[in-house]
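Students often ask why we bother encoding 3D structure as a string. The short answer is that it lets us treat folding as translation between two languages. Here is a chain of 128 residues written in the first language.
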Amino acid sequence: MQRKQNTVLIKRCIDVCMTILLLCLMAYQVTGEQAHEWIGVAMTLLVIIHQVLNRKWYAAIFTPKLLCRSMQRKDEKKKNSLVPVILMMAAVILGLILNMAFSGNREQGFENLMRTKLNSDREKSTID
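And here it is in the second language, the structure alphabet:
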């Protein structure tokens, strides 16, 4: 019983730390670029630890027992309780993919975009 209480306490501490770090990440103008990057690394590590500590929850979502129980409910509001969970998981995965795709040096990306636009405009003007 003591071990379960310790695990719950650790989970709550990680949740509080993640909340504080998220607020610090949103205050980019206050913290500056270097602190923002280090806070982001710490947040990523805490998210990974959070997922590992809650791995039983992910396993329980897709168990036949839970799926059957949620589909047999008479209350329509509770019947589709898995749909928001699955949609949220898909949104998180999509967000991670988009974050990796768009992160990096934004100025370089903008310069490359403008350079491509200028080159296409020049090509059009030489054809005419």
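Translate back mentally: The chain has a mean pLDDT of 77. Keep this in mind for the problem set.
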